[in-house]
Design a protein that fits this description.
By secondary structure, the chain is mostly beta strands. It has a 16-stranded antiparallel β-sheet. Strands 17-16-18 form a three-stranded antiparallel β-sheet, with no helix packed on it. The longest helix has 6 residues. The two termini are 48 Å apart.
Length: 307
């Protein structure tokens, strides 16, 4: 394959790609893709993606999106997508029908004051009525499904967040409704983190009558990071479903993030056991020409968990 990309453009990203895939000496897939991102006056962003299956002569995926910030405290977005499956020419799955769909989605986020954020999103997905391999229609699936989600976050102080989040999925033979409330307390610049989450969900789909019912849970988690290289947490969660009773899960984790630093000194390489993050926390400057091995920021360390 080959790809061409535009470079050194301040507000534009463009990529055009072409790919052939060979299998067992024959052509199994030929694709063309175009990706475009365009920013306008730092307020509007346009996204466009196109994928074409040249071997089967059909469009596989089209996505066009528009995001904007008309005001400092207001963001909104909209996108349209058309999708249909694409398989290799010699695969058995190419003989089965998989429903394409068209979808429209939108979202809006408002933060009029420092202590309040409100958001909402939703969309509709439209597809041909599903049929079986023998072209028998599944009337119970329907042709349109929708999803909607909204929430509000309150921040009365810099170290306290309270979020209420609701969600709804409807269509395709049923619906799912959920509500969650999350409270998070993180004083002392995040060295202590206490969170409580309650969640309840009503599930009801015609194709899965045995799964209908009310689900939910309550979780409490306490975490802390007293220094830059030690992190621990304790979590307890109670889950209820129509099939489980007295389901209580308790887990504890401990992470020790031990880093190493390799740097040049007098034309020689020396290995020092001091940790870069600890030096930064102490206000000490790091040596010049240093090379940092994966450590506090790279994930080199020891971790443990107990459940």
């Amino acid at each position: 394959g080959v790809a061409l990309s535009a470079v050194n453009l301040r507000d534009t990203q463009l990529r055009i790609g072409f790919q052939d895939r060979m299998k067992n000496g024959s052509l199994s897939r030929r694709h063309l893709s175009i990706d475009l991102h365009k920013g306008i006056v730092q307020r509007v962003n346009i996204r466009a993606n196109l994928a074409v299956d040249l071997l089967h002569q059909r469009v596989q995926d089209v996505l066009v999106g528009l995001e904007g910030r008309p005001l400092e405290w207001l963001k909104a977005g909209f996108e349209y997508e058309h999708w249909q499956p694409s398989f290799d020419a010699d695969t058995i799955w190419s003989v089965f029908a998989t429903d394409p769909y068209d979808s429209v989605r939108g979202n809006v986020h408002l933060a009029p004051v420092r202590w309040l954020s409100v958001w909402a999103s939703g969309g509709v997905q439209v597809y041909p009525q599903a049929v079986s391999q023998d072209n028998v229609p599944f009337g119970e699936l329907g042709e349109i499904s929708g999803s909607q989600r909204a929430g509000v976050t309150l921040r009365p102080t810099d170290f306290l967040d309270i979020t209420v989040d609701e969600r709804l999925i409807s269509g395709t033979g049923g619906q799912k409704v959920g509500l969650a409330v999350v409270g998070r307390l993180h004083p002392w610049h995040g060295k202590l983190d206490l969170s409580v989450r309650g969640d309840v969900q009503q599930y009801d789909f015609e194709l899965q009558p045995g799964l209908a019912g009310t689900y939910g849970g309550l979780a409490v988690e306490v975490g802390g990071r007293p220094t830059g290289w030690v992190r621990g947490s304790l979590r307890a969660e109670y889950i209820f479903t129509p099939f489980l009773e007295n389901n209580l899960q308790v887990s504890a984790t401990l992470d020790l993030l031990l880093g190493l630093r390799l740097y040049k000194q007098r034309d020689a390489l020396a290995l020092e056991s001091e940790q870069p993050a600890l030096l930064a926390n102490a206000g000490r400057a790091l040596p010049l020409n240093r090379k940092t091995l994966p450590g506090l920021d790279g994930g080199m360390g020891v971790t443990g968990a107990l459940r």
